């Protein structure tokens, strides 16, 4: 097992239970206790958890995995969701993308969609075949090398957990543009409470993206359904599509449909 895989597994355990014990983790991951202690020390140095005698606990009051440690969670489902969401975007449209691992998969699917790439990578008159507006630095970094896609990056201050730009500079840019479609990555979605993320700054930017768009797509794997998070983005009345995986229950799908949301389960 590689170090990154172990670290991801350890952070998953801390995120799920609030703490992790050295001996239990060593047994679960089939490695030595010395290896687990070293891993926990290094994660603590990065302030991703707090070391205790015999283990570690979640760092701070509100625990949130950094983006680079979320990538392996529900990866096949997120990739399938990304491909499905990309098909809801038409050639020539302006699409807003928030941050997050699932929306990153949307960006990757858009980057290789054949009708967007074309023979030359440009549309008629040497114009981009798609315009992407994003506050996520990692998404901008991946798409900037794609000549068929025009990238507009908001200003703002980046959050190291998600690489998303937040604050008044980001709000200022988004207040001056319109979008055909906004794709929102969320940490929780519920038929009664709507959509939520962990950080209030991200919630504010995500909400503004939704308000500036003609249609709104929420891209979320089924583990986010029925959950709660700290900061509210928008209610379901603002959401047109929920693209999720086949893990959504028939009952939950029916509730979203009754609320006016078109559910696409892949």
Provide an overview of this structure.
With 266 residues, the protein is an alpha/beta fold. The protein is 37% helix and 23% strand. A 7-stranded parallel β-sheet has the order 6-5-4-9-12-14-15, with helices on both faces. A 3-stranded antiparallel β-sheet has the order 1-3-2. The protein has a 3-stranded antiparallel β-sheet with strand order 10-11-13. Helix 7 links the parallel strand 5 and strand 6. Helix 1 (3-17) packs across helix 3, helix 2 (22-29) crosses helix 3 (33-45) and helix 4 (75-86) packs across helix 5 (101-112). The longest helix is centred in the N-terminal third of the chain and has 15 residues, at 3-17. The radius of gyration is 19 Å and the shape is globular.
Helical residue percent band: 25-40%
State the end-to-end CA separation. Answer: 30 Å
Unreliable spans are 120-124
Instruction: Output the number of helix runs.
Output: 10
Radius of gyration in whole Å, from Cα? 19 Å
Q: Tell me about the largest β-sheet.
A: 7 strands, parallel
Structural class: alpha/beta
Question: What is the averaged pLDDT score?
Answer: 89
How many runs of DSSP E, i.e. beta strands? 15
Order of helices and strands: HEHHEEHEHHEHEEEHEEEHEEEHE
Strand content: 15-25%
Write out the strand line-up for the largest beta sheet, numbering strands in chain order: 6-5-4-9-12-14-15
The coarse silhouette is: globular
Brief account:
The chain is α/β, with parallel strands linked by helices and 266 residues long.
């Amino acid at each position: 097992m590689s170090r990154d895989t172990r670290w991801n597994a350890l952070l998953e355990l801390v995120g799920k239970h609030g703490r992790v014990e050295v001996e239990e983790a060593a047994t679960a991951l089939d490695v030595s206790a010395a290896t687990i202690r070293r891993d926990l020390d290094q994660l603590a140095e990065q302030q991703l958890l707090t070391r205790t005698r015999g283990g570690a606990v979640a760092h701070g009051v509100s625990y949130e995995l950094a983006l680079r440690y979320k990538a392996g969670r529900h990866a096949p489902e997120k990739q399938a969701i990304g491909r499905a969401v990309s098909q809801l975007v038409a050639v020539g449209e302006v699409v807003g993308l928030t941050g997050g691992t699932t929306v990153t998969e949307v960006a990757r699917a858009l980057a290789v969609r054949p009708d967007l790439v074309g023979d030359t990578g440009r549309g008629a008159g040497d114009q981009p075949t798609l315009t992407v507006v994003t506050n996520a630095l990692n998404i901008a970094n991946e798409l900037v090398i794609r000549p068929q896609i025009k990238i507009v990056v908001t200003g703002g201050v980046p959050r190291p957990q998600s690489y998303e730009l937040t604050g008044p500079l980001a709000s200022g840019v988004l207040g001056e543009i319109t979008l055909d479609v906004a794709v929102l990555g969320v940490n929780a979605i519920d038929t009664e409470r709507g959509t939520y993320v962990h950080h209030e700054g991200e919630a504010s930017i995500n909400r503004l993206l939704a308000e500036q768009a003609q249609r709104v797509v929420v891209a979320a794997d089924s583990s986010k359904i029925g959950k709660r998070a700290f900061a509210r983005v928008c209610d379901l009345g603002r959401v047109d599509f929920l693209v999720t995986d086949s893990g959504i229950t028939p009952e939950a799908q029916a509730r979203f449909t009754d609320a006016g949301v078109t559910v696409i389960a892949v």
